[in-house]
Amino acid sequence: MKKIILTGDRPTGKLHVGHYVGSLKRRVELQNSGEYDDIFIMIADAQALTDNADNPEKVRQNIIEVALDYLSVGLDPAKSVLFIQSQIPELTELTFYYANLVTVSRLQRNPTVKSEIQMRGFQASIPVGFFTYPISQAADITAFKATTVPVGEDQAPMLEQCKEIVHKFNSVYGETLVDPQILLPDNAACLRLPGTDGKAKMSKSLGNCIYLSDPEEEVRKKIMNMFTDPNHLKVSDPGQVEGNPVFIYLDAFCRDELFAEYLPDYACLQELKDHYTRGGLGDVKVKKFLNNVMQEELAPIRARRHEWEQRIPEVYEILKTGSETAEKVAAQTLTDVKRAMKIDYFNDQALIAEQSERYGN
Ligand code: TRP
User: Fold this and answer.
1) Which residues does ligand 1 sit against, CB inside 6 Å?
2) DSSP, res 206
């Protein structure tokens, strides 16, 4: 069986370092591993509209931001199909048919939908499109016959819901859809990178994100202002590394080789953590090191972004070509689905012959 990746992001803002360690970095590694037959990376604008229906301009503006972020981290249009969800009408058609296989109570129990309803204050009036977006996400995944879906931990309930739709579809209509596997980051710190303020999640509205497109100085400022252990007041005080955002970021970004260059008194992250825990290591020193570590990772991304920023029409062209390629694949799946569901009337000579015979001709 072919190995196929599908994943994507809503274009509601620039992508941040949480997206990067949670999913983007892995995608690029998978892309370059050569182990996958096809890779589809989708800008999920139709999904973004499910809770931004009154703000289409925001979605429109952020298409290019996400595309630039993709290209700058190293997603390569020669190896991965980069496309825009709304340009693939087959996805909405699949969504409509899958909706028959999902109950309202099942959607109400989806933990991601539940928490997003909370976050957006939708309790009293949930848009139907928003409520059913897990079904549309199942269409995204199955349309490309994806075997592997690299995403952050928050997407796990979406994958569960998708698998249920696949199983139900296949049991009712016959083996048609591919059962996808989720691929989570294997480094625990990358599963959910906290905000620079120590809050559990990075979010634009909280102003606690470091963006991939932030200039060097901006990144430095954000790191130097980062929340640390609130009880670590004097350098000599023992400090806590668990739950300390500075150390969580180091867990996510640091490679031991970087000590030789930036902090040669230590050989590895564990030694630095031990010193902090004992006391005698100041936050500023650790933050300066974190800044060096992160700048090392972000500098090539920033440089590639500047190059692509000079070639905007070409970026739109990449998305257009990608969307054309993606549509062909989705159209084939829709044909398979319609055949399985017995709504392929005009392609079925046997049906026409059978009905003729029934009427005695
Ligand atoms: N829900 C994802 C997000 O919020 C975006 C997305 C839409 C997606 N369809 C997908 C991710 C299919 C993986 C697979 O970022």
Assistant:
1) 6-10, 44, 47, 137, 140-141, 149, 151, 155
2) G
